[in-house]
Amino acid sequence: MPGSARLVVAAGSPVVLSNSRGPETLAELVEELSPPARAATFGLTGWVRHTLNGGRERT
């Protein structure tokens, strides 16, 4: 995950990261990638993925 996040940020896009342990465990990576990176709960990242996918389920 960190490698992919770095590529997204390097391309100039914001990134929202999550994991099963909670956003506080991503603080070091978010600090490294800031300002376009932030950590969130899985529920929020699931909503973002759903919204960016036009409301369609991922196949």
From TrEMBL:
This is Uncharacterized protein. Gene3D superfamilies: NAD(P)-binding Rossmann-like Domain. It comes from the Bacteria. It comes from Paractinoplanes abujensis.
